[in-house]
Amino acid sequence: MLHTSVASGMVVAYGVLVIRLHAWIPGMPKAFIALGWLPLAIVLVLAVLFAVGFYTLTAVELVAGILALTPAGVDVLADAEVRVDRVRARMLSGLSGDEQDALAAGLAACATALSD
Question: What pLDDT digit, counting tens, does each position of 92-105 carry?
Answer without folding.
Answer: 777 777 877 887 78
